[in-house]
Amino acid sequence: MSLAPILDSIVLFGDSITQGGWQANGFAQKLAYVYNRKMDVINRGLGGYNTEWGIPVFEQMFNKKEGHPSHSKCKLLTIWFGANDACIPPSPQRVPLDKYKANLEWMIQALRSESSEYYSPWTRIILFSPPPIQLSAWAAALADREVPRDLDRTFEETKRYADAAKEVAAAQRVPLVDTYDALWKAAGEKEEGLTPFLSDGLHLTEKGYEIVYEELIKVISRDIPELHYDKLPMVFPAWDAVDPQNVRSTVVSRYVDV
């Protein structure tokens, strides 16, 4: 037995920074609230993953031959990788810059190309740049682990990957949430100014996610206005629109195949 796709969905795809979007007042939580009864928000953030490891997950999400995604139609996909790809050697998480760009391009084209088995013409895509890093805080976090680790990132390398994400977005003509620039400007363009926005030098705080959420809503409003929550009807009617004498005909969703 399969469930009918009651609501269309927004799928958030990325690493731990996406995964952390479910924390209190995270960007995923805020999206789920404003899109309640309009679109489901599905978080596919995978802590520690890079674009190379994310591709097999992407294939499972969108391979129609395997029936994915069976729960709903993905109308908006956000892709937010780069923080781990930008690790420096010998980290196993590192993905070379050219390969990182190629992986992002592959995901975008996999959904756009009619010859692709992952073709999804109804899915709009928004790309995110990775956020800046506060090296002193991240070094302290690594040193404080049960098994201390050496510093595995640099400020300059993270910036290169953020710039690469912007280049891919421009070349592929997809909207971009420029997380890097938004947080860097909020920090006064000083590394020490990132403290309110990064919990450990890498992952976002509530204030950091607030900036990301606001930037995402701006991008949706500007580039995909038809998917803004204010423009979407509720899938099921408001309670005062239900006919008590004929409940089924008024409550069955118009999106369900019956």
TrEMBL record:
Molecular-function GO term, any one: lipase activity
A GO biological process held by the record: lipid metabolic process
One Pfam family it belongs to: Lipase_GDSL_2
Residue ranges of every copy of the SGNH hydrolase-type esterase domain listed in the record: 12-211
Protein name: SGNH hydrolase-type esterase domain-containing protein
InterPro entries: Iah1-like, Lipase_GDSL_AS, SGNH_hydro, SGNH_hydro_sf
